Amino acid sequence: MIIAKADVVVFEEIERVYQFVALDFVANYPRWSPEVVELEALSTGPVRLGYQARQVRVDQGHRSESIFEVADLEPLKRVCFKGVSAPYRSLYEFDDVSSSTRISFSFEVEVLEGRLRPFEKLIRIAVQDGAKRTVRKLKLLIEKEMLDHGE
């Protein structure tokens, strides 16, 4: 199993951060993860437990497609996306830190394909770098969006 974790403090209230990441996920996910070249909601209505989407990603030249679903959702606390067609999990946790919010992000790859095992060390490094990039990009987007709206 490969696990990467990163966190960041966003200078914005938890309700707005949670809204941006969890509830407005379909609109915002490609903004903080530019590797996502296509995102399609497979469920209708708001993001909720069991909600599914399909993504096409291009990571360092490697194209992959997967279906994932919301496996855990606790308002203002966490949202977890789990691969349905691939063995991965993305978890975003939110902590209220006196009018700011700490986002803790973790990404897990449960099983590495046999052909990729010789590159496990490089993949671990790339996944950890990706986790750090994810939280930095979230911080920038959320804080900029709130500034742009004069809030």
TrEMBL record:
SUPFAM superfamilies: Bet v1-like. It holds the Pfam family Polyketide_cyc2. It comes from the Bacteria. This is SRPBCC family protein.
